[in-house]
Amino acid sequence: MDRKTFMRDVYADYWLQARDKKYGFMDYDRRLCELVESESKPEARLLEVAIGTGYPIAGFLARAGHKVHGIDISPALIERCRELNPGIEASVGDAENLAFDDGTFDAVYCFHSTWYFPDLPRVIDEMLRVTREGGAVLFDIQNRSHPAIAADYERRLRQIRPGVGPRLVLQARNVAKVVLRRGNPNWHAVNYEVPTDPQAVTDHLRQSPAVQNFSVLARNESDQSLARIDDHCTFPHYPRLIFVARR
């Protein structure tokens, strides 16, 4: 099972139950909403890539008066998003091939999701393509240069390396947990999250002819505030980084 199929057919069932109940509207989510609003005009036309159920970020921005669109690879998540947010234009789509014309949106954002994409550079290019000139593209990454993130990633790799038999057993157990709603599935051993090298992202943005300029922000773990960082040598200090690219 490839990563896209897994996210569409398996992980989505877990996310339907977990996003609002397990995580809720975190302080970090609120900061991200404020960041999107600071980078776009009032009543802007926005696109959320990997919108899920629309909770909490898309829903917050829609209630603030923005025209929010969203795509997700999972039909089940899009159906729930439409139920919860009738004012949001949500549709099934692939982040690597966005079904919108060039320059459609004032801002495009993607949060809590980049580590699930098989080809993040392609997703970034697609987000830039559908953003108008002068608009902004915003996304966060799990920082692979952070020691704890790197250690977690290596642990997940060790879990997925056993033979086919153990992986199939683990996958079956995960599906059973979702269906019966008993216990927490061990997703990482089936389809692990892949943290991102922040230097690779900065290099990609620098080389893109669609990017006028960009900035990098870091999440403060104590109060979840966001602060701009200019010295890339400090990247390893932060587990989560946010990129803001201006078209």
List the helices and strands and how they pair.
Elements: H1 3-23, H2 27-38, E1 45-49, H3 57-63, E2 67-72, H4 75-84, E3 89-92, E4 105-110, H5 120-129, E5 131-142, H6 147-160, H7 164-180, H8 198-207, E6 213-219, E7 226-228, E8 240-246
Parallel strand pairs: 1-2, 1-4, 2-3, 4-5
Antiparallel strand pairs: 5-8, 6-7, 6-8
Structure description:
This protein has 247 residues and is α/β, with parallel strands linked by helices. The protein has eight helices and eight strands, in the order ααβαβαββαβαααβββ. An eight-stranded mixed sheet has the order 3-2-1-4-5-8-6-7, sandwiched between helices. Helix 2 crosses helix 3. The N and C termini lie far apart (36 Å). The mean pLDDT is 89.
Q: By helix and strand content, what is the structural category? A: alpha/beta
Poorly predicted spans: none
Return the string of H and E elements. HHEHEHEEHEHHHEEE
Largest beta-sheet characterization: 8 strands, mixed
The Rg value, from CA coordinates, equals: 18 Å
Query: N-to-C terminal Cα separation, in Å?
Result: 36 Å
| Overall helicity | 40-55%
The total count of strands amounts to 8
> What is the strand content?
15-25%
How does the overall form come out from the CA principal axes?
globular
Total of DSSP H or I helical runs spanning 4+ residues? 8
Mean of residue pLDDT values: 89
Strand order of the largest sheet: 3-2-1-4-5-8-6-7
